[in-house]
Write a structure and sequence with these properties.
The chain is α/β, with parallel strands linked by helices. The chain contains eight helices and 14 strands.
Amino acid sequence: MHNFDQTISTLSDISQSELHHFGIEGIPFPSVPELREFVDICRSVLFPGYYGKNVVTGGLQYHIGVGVEHLYEKISKQFMAGIAFAQGDDFVEREVVRDAAKRRAKRFVEALPELREILATDVVAMYRNDPAANNLGEVILCYPGMHAITNYRIAHAIYQLDVPLIPRMITELAHSETGIDIHPGATIGPSFAIDHGTGVVIGATAILGHHVTLYQGVTLGAKNFPQEPDGSLVKGIARHPILGNHVVVYANATILGRVHIGDNTTIGGNLWVTHDVPAGTKLFYNAK
């Protein structure tokens, strides 16, 4: 029999505290499987008939009602876990965290009609931008861009409620499944389309207007990272691009820094953009 006492003792050394997290008694950590199920239920409510159980004639209200109640119970617990996780040693009272989580869960559920309305514009935008799309249902069921946008819209709604950790976990679910990385803090207007999508990156402080279309490999990132005197990165500054309305960015283009891309602008593929681009510009690579 092997003796692993020394290994166990070393791994249990709490001097490596940054690698340990001691949860609040009685409140579990946020759960990836639970959040994945939560997103699936959201899809069944937002796109009934496409996700979840088939909806029989006359049964739509019952189907949505069951889903909404299930959503509220599940996300209340995950919100509570996220808030407690972020509080750490500053945690005071379990009841305070529970009540805060339930208030936010209620506000999220009440925002579902607005969430569905903006997602409907995204579905139409995806369909209109892709000649290979045969119908809206194909976009909802098959397109990775729509999958990632849905997770982002859900996560962004939660992000706006000041719930820690949970929004990022939800967008990372889509990131792992589609290769599309959208930070939940990004601000994205309606009628948003991502075609093909693999490798798209949208940073936390990016702002996108309405009717924006991105193709695969597009990066909306930061140009540089200011540092504190101790060498750590400065947090919370606006460092990602602002795209106006009716902007198209083609495959593998990279736009970095707090630059402004004007309305009705087209950015060609494989470009590296670090400066403002006036409205109405068509910016392409010229090999001559």
